[in-house]
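Translate structure to sequence.
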């Protein structure tokens, strides 16, 4: 009987835990005893404990913890069910990792930080959940800048730096956010701590900072340190290399950026707006080729919200115009342009900022008027039409402005057709803009046609055109009807 006692006790604890979760949730009504056990972690945070944070059912200092005989039993007892994690905020998920009973074990052996993180934290449900959160990097940075490095909790800060240095959450940081994190380290943190150097180096490596990448190509010791945290041959000279790179990182500028976007600037036919954002990495740069995933490219190219808030509407539009993936909108399957727009542009911070602003429609119209549709960057103006035809922006135009949009669309497509000697393969985008503008204007004859034609409804909603042989003729007639209604729309309002 005695040999079965620990197993029975373990399952008893787990049964009580899961029963309490299903009945009352994972936060007891009286959590003061638990908070006393984690007081050192709360003090070190220097910020309120996030709402909805998780209370571990067993914890060092509890009798139940001492009754669990093996480390594996304790680890299993501290796994948070995914059903609970999914309902927690990102800050609460990070807090669960911060309060994890074995969290500080990852900083116990200098030189083995990465090995111990992979062994102790990577396989927890909480970290797996964090990997799916799009805002994890942002909140990790926010917490780090608030964190106090007190002597009594130094191991906690070291552990957090190792956690922050992991590629999954840190990939979500843009260049300005990485720059801010490095600045925070240089100004407020201990630059000589191995964990701090590990984090600082990885923040720069993660965005392929050119001087550091050149250093890593010729310095195997430093490269190994940033890969594994190994410190066997790490001396003051290597520490100084990381610190000096970090200091230069804060003032580094992409001097060749405007040359890289010259074609895009030429076809604008207007000055680049004051306060426009310079992307740190861009197609055409050697460092861009280092990326091994589209998601890393995407997150690195995001503009932090605090910067976007300070930018003019024209500068935000310019950020979308120069966005590294903007030119790829027309590389998708022909009838998936709108879907591709939402998947490529719709999730960017710049677009999310833009849809909250009034007066975007008139700003887009002001850019559309002078735009050169036969310049070197021929795809950019057509991509711009996909941006312009979003209903949120068309709704901000008055009737006269909507007439002007349709007139300009005809004019620019005819110019392209005359220049190229044939109807361009992207003419359907222009008809999409014309159709959505008339739909936004509630032009009665066109609205009646929309009610009667299902293929027109599908086109307006998702840019879907059915080019199967059995439907191709009807699709061509549908596009021609947009052409005719567009001319009528202009003439009707001109006469009236």
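Result:
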């Amino acid at each position: 009987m005695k040999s079965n006692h620990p197993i029975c006790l373990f399952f008893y604890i787990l049964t009580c835990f899961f029963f309490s979760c299903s009945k009352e949730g994972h936060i007891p009504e009286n959590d003061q005893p638990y908070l006393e056990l984690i007081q050192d972690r709360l003090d070190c945070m220097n910020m309120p404990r996030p709402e909805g944070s998780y209370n571990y059912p067993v914890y060092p200092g509890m009798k139940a913890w001492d009754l669990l005989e093996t480390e594996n039993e304790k680890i299993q007892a501290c796994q948070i069910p995914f059903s609970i994690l999914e309902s927690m905020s990102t800050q609460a998920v990070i807090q669960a990792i911060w309060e994890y009973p074995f969290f500080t074990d990852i900083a116990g052996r200098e030189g083995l930080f990465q090995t111990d993180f992979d062994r102790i934290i990577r396989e927890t449900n909480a970290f797996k959940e964090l990997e799916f959160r799009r805002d994890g990097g942002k909140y990790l940075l926010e917490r780090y800048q608030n964190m106090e490095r007190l002597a009594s909790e130094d191991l906690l800060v070291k552990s957090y730096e190792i956690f922050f240095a992991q590629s999954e959450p840190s990939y979500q940081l843009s260049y300005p956010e990485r720059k801010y994190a490095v600045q925070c380290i240089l100004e407020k943190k201990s630059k000589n701590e191995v964990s701090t150097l590990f984090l600082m180096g990885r923040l720069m490596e993660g965005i392929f900072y050119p001087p550091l990448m050149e250093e890593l190509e010729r310095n195997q010791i430093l490269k190994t340190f940033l890969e594994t945290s190994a410190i066997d041959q790490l001396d003051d000279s290597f520490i100084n290399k990381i610190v000096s790179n970090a200091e230069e990182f804060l003032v580094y500028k992409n001097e060749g950026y405007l040359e890289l976007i010259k074609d895009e600037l030429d076809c604008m036919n207007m000055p680049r707006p004051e306060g426009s954002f310079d992307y740190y990495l861009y197609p055409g740069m050697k460092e861009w080729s280092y990326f091994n995933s589209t998601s890393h490219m995407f997150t690195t190219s995001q503009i932090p919200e605090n910067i976007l808030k300070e930018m003019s509407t024209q500068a935000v539009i310019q950020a979308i115009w120069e966005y590294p993936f903007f030119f790829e909108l027309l590389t998708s399957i022909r009838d998936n342009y709108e879907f591709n727009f939402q998947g490529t542009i719709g999730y960017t911070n710049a677009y999310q900022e833009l849809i909250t602003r009034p007066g975007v429609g008139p700003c887009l119209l002001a850019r559309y008027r002078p735009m050169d549709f036969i310049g070197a960057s021929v795809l950019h103006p057509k991509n711009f039409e996909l941006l312009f035809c979003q209903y949120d922006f068309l709704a901000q135009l008055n009737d006269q402005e909507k007439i002007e949009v349709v007139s300009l669309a005809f004019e620019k497509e005819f110019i392209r057709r005359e220049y190229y000697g044939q109807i361009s393969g992207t003419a359907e985008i222009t008809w999409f803009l014309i159709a959505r503008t008339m739909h936004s204007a509630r032009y009665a004859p066109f609205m009646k046609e929309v009610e009667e034609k299902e293929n027109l409804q599908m086109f307006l909603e998702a840019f879907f055109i059915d080019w199967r042989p059995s439907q191709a003729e009807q699709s061509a007639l549908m596009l021609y009807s947009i052409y005719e209604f567009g001319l009528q729309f202009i003439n009707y309002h001109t006469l009236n």
